[in-house]
Amino acid sequence: EISRFYRQIPKKYVSRFKFVFTLGTLKDESAEITKNSVRISDIYKVSDLVLFPSKTEGRGLPIIESAASFTPIVSARYHPKKVYRDLVGEDLKKSERFNIIEFPDDLKDYEIAVKKIIELILDIKKYEIFTNHNRAVVERRFTIKNLEKDFNEAYFRLWKSTQSSDDYKDHAKRTLKNIISSKTNRLDGLTYTIKR
After folding, report:
1. Is the pLDDT confidence value at 187 over 70?
2. Choosing a second label site near 164 at 20 to 30 A (CA), which of 13, 39, 62, 149?
3. What are the percentages of helix, strand and coil residues in the chain, rounded to 5?
4. Three-state DSSP class for 177?
5. Predicted structure pTM score
6. Is 75 helix (H, G, I), strand (E, B) or coil?
């Protein structure tokens, strides 16, 4: 994906593109992270654009991280598709949906995507509107309160599953009990719901 993208950049702009790659996580857990260590947030801060061509992603963190850092993202429609759709907010109103430029599926559409990207990067006003919108989406949708609500709903569904289907009942009850006992201070709403 990156090489296709790069080949579509007009020659007069090629020298303005620099690529930084991060792959996986820190392998040596004993390695010391110091105040001088480069963090992913540092890379976002100095970037004008994030290219995320990955075909799979568990939680969509690069989209949230780039949006929180006021950095536009070009992303593939990764698997699982439902995670991508939900994270981007395809079913939400426009004010709650991330602005995303997608890697095209078809090679002939790369030229169009590259033109959109160059226009976005060179037009400061468009860039600000795009990035400010995405940052506002992060601030509205990914607050601690909203995340806690989402967790409470997920845990409630798990608890609800213990009320039927004998095959899963014991396993779900044990799992829920472990979750509640280890996270009681963070899940007061769920605890209240179960006691009712």
Report:
1. no
2. 149
3. 60, 5, 35
4. helix
5. 0.65
6. strand
